[in-house]
Specification:
The protein is about 25% helix and about 25% strand. It is an alpha/beta fold and about 400 residues long.
Length: about 400
Amino acid sequence: MGMEAGALGQAARTALEQAELIIGSTAHLAATPENLSAEKRSYPSPMSGLPDMLRANAGRRIAILASGDPLFFGIGSTLLRQFSAEQLAFYPNVSSIQAAFARLGRPWQQVQWVSLHGRPLASLRSALQSNRLYALLTDRESSPVAIARILVETGFNESNVWVAEDLGGDQERFRAFQAAELANATGEFSPLNVVIIETRGPGGVLPEFPGIPDERFSTGAEPGKGLLSKREVRLTILSLLAPRVGEIGWDVGAGCGGVSVEWARWNPYGEVYAVEYHAERLEHLGINRERFGVVSNLHVVAGRAPEAFAALPDPQAVFIGGSSGNLGEMLAAVWARLLPGGRLVASAVTEDSRVDLHAFVGDRAAEWTELSIARAEKLAGQRVMRPYLPVLLMKLEKPR
């Protein structure tokens, strides 16, 4: 049940009064009425021991105390993985985000919430956009100062930042800062805080629409060069893949991560596995994964395909961009693992790979696209259009 400033509803109070065992943090237990007859125990350390504690007390009426709404990034998710919904009853209270916006005095129906609790701080980069309102659930690694430094690094140095600490407690504080100021702050913040951000500033460091400029990627070569799918080709590939929420995707021969980074960024509720074996490309793939904040749903798989496929979950969408001259074997291996209804997209530049692609497809109904791109350059002071090698793209859907 959620506890906020001692304001428990009647149903929650009745559940406490009828409980035979109450489990919570030290602060939660101290806030419960003294006249309760139940045994009181602190959460186990580590928290992974909670299901065992509950099973050891099977048959007793147990109340578990949490803050705010236990089903909003709370302990409810953990319990539902171990027990059926019929075994549980939830009594939510005001969540920390609700309470923070109440202190701020602003509507929050359009806020985008981001949980950094137990997640890499770099994942914030995957969400930040200009002129947006964010609510961040934090932990010790994602302090308000560290968050402000990311805002400054990404061009949002003029952002308004509000820090709500110890909401509902005796030590509650609610303070306002500008990101540039907060980034250099030296004061202490309670580890129990919620951060609200209103992004302001020129931005321009992080992408806000598909089609990241080539020069933004790290490749080890001069900006815009290196082993990277050109933006025009990348956008067509992503359109053909048509990623959906909850899907597993593979980017085979991911290179420096042009396709997989954009894939993961614009489909945050899907999982992308980028398979690459070349050490230098893997280094830049990791840099780009961090740079664009796709650290939660882009998984780097260091190894050669198709052997590296063995440890991966079956995909609904696959792009084969690199095959080391072995495209035919790669296509067959991917097709065997692709789930029914899944989409396979592959590219070919060399004549050998084009032959392999046509041989694999045979008489099946595939979608074929050839892209011929030219970009402007200067030659003797004059503008010329410099062509790139044509890229053949093939999309084939696996029958259901």
